[in-house]
UniProtKB/TrEMBL annotation:
InterPro entries (UniProt xref): Cryptochr/Photolyase_FAD-bd (IPR005101), Cryptochrome/DNA_photolyase_1 (IPR002081), DNA_photolyase_1_CS_C (IPR018394), DNA_photolyase_N (IPR006050)
Entry protein name: Deoxyribodipyrimidine photo-lyase
Organism: Arsukibacterium indicum
Molecular functions per Gene Ontology: deoxyribodipyrimidine photo-lyase activity
Top-tier EC class: lyase
Gene (name only): phrB
EC number, as in UniProt: 4.1.99.3
UniProt keyword terms in alphabetical order: Chromophore, Lyase
UniProt xrefs under PROSITE patterns: DNA_PHOTOLYASES_1_1, DNA_PHOTOLYASES_1_2, PHR_CRY_ALPHA_BETA
Amino acid sequence: MSKITSLHVVWLRNDLRSYDNAALHHATAAANDEQNSAVLALFIATPKTWQRHDMAPIRQDLLRRRVLQMQTELASRNIALMALEASSYSDCAKIFSKLADAGMVALYGQTEYELREQQRDKEITQQLQRADITVNWYDRLCIMPPGTILTQSGDTYKVFTPFKRNWLSRLHEQEIRCYSKPKASVLVDVKQLMQQLGVKEMADGDGCSADWPVAEQQVLDKLRGFCQQQVADYNDKRDFPAVKGTSRLSAYLACGVLSAQQCVNRLQMEAGPALEREKSGASVWLSELIWREFYKHILLAYPDLIKHKPFQAETAAIRWRQNKTLFKAWCEGNTGYPIVDAAMRQLNDTGWMHNRLRMITASFLVKDLQIDWRWGEQYFMSKLIDGEFAANNGGWQWAASTGTDAAPYFRIFNPVTQSERFDPEGDFIRRFVPEIAHVQGKEIHWPHKKSTPSGYCPAIVDHDEARKITLAMFTEVKKSDG
DNA sequence: TAGTGGTTTTG
DNA sequence: AAAACCACT
């Protein structure tokens, strides 16, 4: 075989899949078109940057496991995946200059919307273009890319429902296309290339995400299974944490084993007509995918969000309580509110939390403990296997009433009412708060009525009182703003 | 035609 | 209360 003289490099980040991967697809097509040309997929682990972004250890481990799995999957398609270990994003530049010397002719990748990531990509782009290397970015993180869904006056939507209406009308105008799995003709010898470049191989993770399978086919089967068997009941079951009513695909969307395009494509295939029915399981699940895009669009349009500025400027003046003791109790699931404690322990024990519980615990931290939503935002990121800036920040600001969407009511959840409504039998609470598992019947939602069961913590705050304090805090900043 | 004001909608 | 739409200019 003749010597490889040109490399088409695919930089994988949060698009760790071989199906429907635009970058991989185009790089392979280009390489197959040329003589002595090969595709090289590249992943660079950057634990220092990950840590600075509070990326949960379980999410880091999932990334590493997925990359190793993908290495095998891609090799069978004649595509080598070089998995490297660096420290932070600034080290990526050195790797690319070495690749440029080794015959790299083009770079392919999927765009990302966070500030540091955009800076990183901009710098690498400039560096490579100076060396006459073609750089191709594909904006496929969303089905409808930011900038394509605007109000009639050309503004970014700040309210979900009109955004969704617009988004859906676009969906009806077009067919969602997914790229096929690429196949190259020449396989690069990665071991040799790594030696030649003098770069460090990616380290293994600690395996803490082992409960989450990483084989691409297995994940696609999960998606298909969900769309065939569960999505029909999604609207009826999704709010009950004791029931497996949600897709549990968020972690795979976050690291891109699945694309949103694949999700909607599969949903249309399996649930077709139901999608046209309002409140059908299929259309409600689609709404959740649209929420994901809504927050990504918002993030790109309001870059201050990445600096943790509140969307509603006047709420920056709120003086949140800096109480480490109360915060710790919330983190550890020792608030004395069973549904809150069960939820936080689910997060701590499994790296994942049911969406209904994310709203309940967020509301509790902000509206019952008056603690800065940013503390909660950061804690969630540091624990969640599916933590992504846009959705996490959007969700927290929604719960904190500092974000988009100006509803005329004030959003304070009553944790006991929420518990009664969404964990009616207390099954979920008993699973995660064993010290009150023996409490019979509806008392499980509020076991303090007679006296707090031994081994369980008393309530750290009185909800009705806390509610009044919070309302006053918001009234204060609203009136000083005029 | 882009700006306005009045009306409807809002996770 | 604020956003978005819509009709009118």
